[in-house]
Design goal:
Layout: H1 2-22, H2 33-43, H3 57-73, E1 79-80, H4 84-101, H5 105-113, H6 118-138, E2 147-148, H7 151-170, H8 189-206, H9 210-220, H10 226-243, H11 260-277, H12 281-289, H13 293-311, H14 323-342, E3 347-351, E4 357-361
Antiparallel strand pairs: 1-2, 3-4
Helix pairs in contact: 1-8, 1-10, 2-13, 3-7, 3-8, 3-12, 4-11, 4-13, 4-14, 5-6, 5-10, 6-9, 6-11, 9-10, 11-14, 12-13
Amino acid sequence: MDRKKILLSGLLVGFLGVLLVRFGNPANMGVCIACFLRDISGGLGLHRAAPVQYIRPEISGFILGAFLIAVFTGEFRARGGSSPLVRFLIGMAVMIGALTFLGCPLRMVLRLAAGDLNALVGLAGFVFGIFIGVQFLKKGFSLGRSHRLPMANGLAMPVLALVLLVLVAAAPAFIFFSESGPAASKAPLLLSLAAGLLIGWAVQRTRLCQIGCFRDLLLIKDPHLLYGTIGIFGAALIMNLVFGYFKLGFADQPVAHSDGLWNFIGLAVVGLGATLLGGCPLRQLVLSGEGDTDAAMTVLGLIAGAAFSHNFGLAASAAGVTPAGQIGVIIAAAFLLVVGFAFTKSEIKVRQKGGVTHEHTA
């Protein structure tokens, strides 16, 4: 039954991912957490890349969908305190990797279902990054425990999601809207919000996660979450074939580049970073809706990473990866490796004052 539920959840996400394209979202970008947060970053004026500025209502939907169902089922719980600053910085690193590939793990699956073979190279890098992360997990990697917090802390992200909805609906003069480029392509607001609410609900109930499916397979030989990814791919493939969006090949794919090395490295960084975080970008949004302030810090880190990438010329484009982007993603990879080693448990004897010896966990 659990496998059936997560398969159905994946089918829903894949179906909605292509349906949103049908109604106006960019090709092969019906749902992309990295792209949507990048657009929101631009819409708020945190970067000034004119083609990618729009407050995507799907993001609010993911958070609010998870929030509403978590409250209804009694699973909403304000918690946090598990290395929030480090999570923020990991979020930035993950976004740098995603904008090198031009998409999050979910968009990777949707691109592959549309015939974009560059996503297959990205998938190989993604699994490689997760494999490295799993080695840290096996050695005891942990960012620390979270703790119960006052309720107001957990409500922060749902309230922020509501504020973003008000801003996109009211369209005040200080909010930026692209007139051309990917962010100018958008499905109707209410449809986008409805799709986001449904996806937020489905992911909250089934724990669907692009990282989790490969992490669990490598770590404990459990394919349970993999059924969700299979569902996303299967539904999106059928929808792409029905609407005539399927185009097999490497060249001239929508909002993509064909530089295999950097596609591999970009998603390897995403795979490693998200494994250290404990979930993919979509899962982080859903957790933030459930009251997890550590996940909320990660989401804010993703937004900051998008601003940083565009302000400093790190983000890739259809023309490929810039020299600054190549340096940036390598630095992001190095940072994640340092975090992996720094937070991996190692028994170190520390002599305290008075000659008492304790076991210290780094």
